[in-house]
Amino acid sequence: MEGSDSFSDDDDFVTTQKRTRRRATPEVVEKKAKLVKAGPSTSAAKSKPSTTKTATALPDPSKHLAVETTRAANCAEGELNPRGTKDKEKRKSETATSLVREDQNFLPVPWSYILDEEEMEVEEEEMRLRDGRGIIHRAVELAEEFHIKYVGSSDVRLGTTVKGEGVDQIRKTILRLVGVAQNETTSSDLDVFEASPELVSTQEEQGLTAGQREVLFQEIFGRGGRVDVEDKPGWFLIIHKAPTTGLIHLCLEVPQTNRGVLGYIAIRLCTKPKCYQYSQTLSSDVLPKCAQHQPNPIFSVVEMTDYNRRDVLVLLHMKLAFSVVSNASKQMKDEKAELMIHHLCTGYTQWANYCTTSGLQTRPIPKSISRHHFNNEGEALRMLSFESTIGMFIKLASGSQPIINLDDLIPLCYGMEGEIDARLKELGIELKVRRHLTKDEKAGVKYPFPGEYLLGTAAAAQQQPAKGNTFLYTIMSRNMWYFGWSNTPDFKHRFQLRAGTDGAREYKRITEKRQKDRELEIEGLRQRDRELGRAEDLCIYPPPLKAPTMTPYLVANCEDDDKKNINTKTIEAKMIIAGYVAYLLGLRNPIRPNSDVGYSTNKCSLVDSNSWGEICEFVKLFWGFEPMLGKLNERN
Ligand SMILES: [Zn+2]
Ligand SMILES: [Zn+2]
Fold first, then answer.
1. Can you tell me the ipTM of this complex?
2. What is the pLDDT of residues 479-522, one digit of tens each?
3. Among residues 322, 342, 527, 543, which is most buried (max CB within 10 A)?
């Protein structure tokens, strides 16, 4: 049991890295594991100002921002800034953070993979065919059911706009101030046969006119420059002059904690007619636009670190959306992204938590390590998935430096096996099969997690739900596995589609729809042939596409009295990562050996950096293959 007393619960913060040995005995496993995950974490949440943590305490009224109570001189009707005001350049003043931004010579804390000495241990065993095999590059297009599962829910899917929190209430407040009835109430009173289209037209078709905007501003000025947002306690609409640019805007004022102090921030409302969004509007624009209405949208994936931290490699991956002038150079995009991460970080839970780490020598300042820019959000999401999956392996591998990985949920990357293989190799890591276990070898593998392994045992049928009992399960088909946990060993309701959108349900929905669509297609062709009077046995139809059978299996139980089921979720996360490793290595459903190479369909939480040993043990137990992270280019 070497090393078992030198583990830290928070391995990230120790400078001498010790990890679970690959051949860890089960005792090692029983140390407390900590699941590194907190707070909401949709990609959308990462790329919009965090205005959501406002529920409980409100800032002291003295913290309200300065507001304007009269209109600036020489404004046109419905405008807040004098005629001819131009957009401002971004602030050029020299601050600690601007110096960090402009530091072109910055290099992150170097990290390189070091092989655990244990790994070198050579055993006398006969080589088997698949020993040493690496990541399998699949030369097929990734089927829809295996598309990357992005964090959050379906609204983060491509192309859909996420409506910001409170946008409906902002709209309602503004329309009431202007005295315009909302669309719903107006149209329901109308007799559609008598009303001409012009009469139906409320501001919702047109957007506010200059006159209506003028009314809005005068109403707010008349109330002292600040009005409550309806049904959003603690939220206000204010007319506010940006201290840095002097530009005046209609803003949302919401509570925000900055460096531990609860205060308010102003966020510009989009000035596109009919839009009440506020995400990513700029104080330097005379007429700010939200992310959706900015011209030339750019979606960037940034890997960033803490500029001031030199003892540990801090990593965080973020997706940004912003707009640039047309034909902007890579350097311009880089600069803009650099400017944005500073603002976005403060609203990002994981970074904010990191900033409160006790004993930090210097205040953390975010600095990008790499930047990738796209015109298309889908490509950016794929890159985010790729980069954070690589970050997960860096966290799991034993490195020359301890790392703090601030990514919370990893949208595991599918369909890019070649790229993952290549990047890991660049880092000196080679993921491969160390050993295809023989039957005897497999029989000797112990379940690495707390609780009882039930797969294929008689005990599986005897499990009962009880307080403090949790269950780990898998759902498998001929080409898919999914891991989850439950309070009950009974899966009767597991497949009901209305209950959620996890990977298993999505797989079921998509494959069943494909089967149904094919049935309809064939039926349509049959119908046509009958109408044409063709002889049935001469007609050729496309083959049916039968949705694969999905079977749930109880994998293990666990005693977990914790309200949040942290232990169970930690085991689940490790099983999910094991399932992902099995996918990369091209393994198959172990219960149906003649099945195809499988895909996992989970996204996952990050686990402790000392989890790799347990993950490997589980792959051995479940699939009968031992994975390893080999070291490439070892020189001595
Ligand atoms: Zn907008
Ligand atoms: Zn990365």
1. 0.61
2. 999 999 999 998 777 776 566 678 999 999 999 999 999 999 99
3. 322
Q: Does the residue 583 lie in any domain?
A: yes
Domain count, the chain: 2
Residue 303's identity, in one-letter code, is E
Q: How far, in Å, is the centroid of ligand 1 from the Cα of 289? A: 5
Place of tokens 């797969």: 455
Judge contact between 601 and 619, C-beta under 8 A.
no
Is the domain of 144 the same as that of 213? no
Ligand with an atom nearest the CA of residue 424:
2
Ligand 1 mean position, distance from CA 91 (Å): 23
Q: Where are the beta strands (DSSP E) in 464-616?
A: 469-477, 480-486, 551-559, 599-600, 604-605
Question: Would you say the C-alpha torsion 135, 140, 145, 148 has a positive or negative sign?
Answer: positive
Residues 6+ apart with CB under 8 A from 86: 286
What is the token pair recorded at 343?
A: 């603002």
Taking the C-alpha atoms of residue 147 and residue 155, their distance in angstroms, rounded to an integer, is 15
Mean pLDDT of the residues in the chain: 82
pLDDT tens digits, one per residue of 296-319: 888 899 999 999 999 999 999 998
Q: Is 450 within the bounds of a domain?
A: yes
* Cα 446 to ligand 1 centre (Å): 56
Q: What SS3 class is residue 406? A: coil
Give the range of the structural domain holding residue 189, as residue numbers without chain letter. Answer: 163-283
Q: Are residues 132 and 181 in the same domain?
A: no
Alpha helices in 556-630 (DSSP H): 566-584, 612-623
CA–CA separation, 463 vs 459, rounded Å?
Answer: 7
Sheet holding 452-453, edge to edge: 452-453, 551-559, 469-477, 480-486, 599-600
Q: Which domain-ending residue is among 266, 283, 300?
A: 283
Yes or no: say if 601 and 480 are a contact pair by the CB < 8 Å rule. yes
Ligand in closest contact with the CA of 391: 2
Closest to 303 in 3D by CA, of 106, 545, 42: 106
Q: Which ligand is nearest to the CA of 371?
A: 2
Pairing of β 248-258 and β 261-268: antiparallel
Q: Helices in 208-329 by DSSP H: which ranges?
A: 210-222
Ligand nearest to the CA of 413: 2
Ligand at minimal distance from the CA of 270 is 1
**Is residue 45 a part of any domain in this protein?**
no
Q: Is 398 within the bounds of a domain?
A: no
Instruction: Identify the helix (H) or strand (E) that includes residue 372.
Output: strand 366-374
Whether residue 178 sits in one domain with residue 236: yes
